[in-house]
Design goal:
five-stranded antiparallel sheet; alpha+beta; globular; 25% helix; two-stranded antiparallel ribbon; 1 helix; single chain
Amino acid sequence: MSTTTTVFDEYAQAMKNRAIELNGTAVVVELMSGKALTGTLSYALADGPQHSKYYPTVLTVTVSTKAYTVRLDAIAAIGQG
């Protein structure tokens, strides 16, 4: 396994952990593009094969009444908002 893959996997896991921690709360999601979304975070288990559950590679931020789906690898930071 390459070092780059390991670093990315650790980063993705850190974003997942933060999303799990802040699920259902008001957040500010800073994107790699420099933009930010301020709203309510939704990150929940999804159904997998053979009745398994997993956390997806995307989360949802609802700003006002519009829901934005964001890939975990496009997130620079997630903070309470």
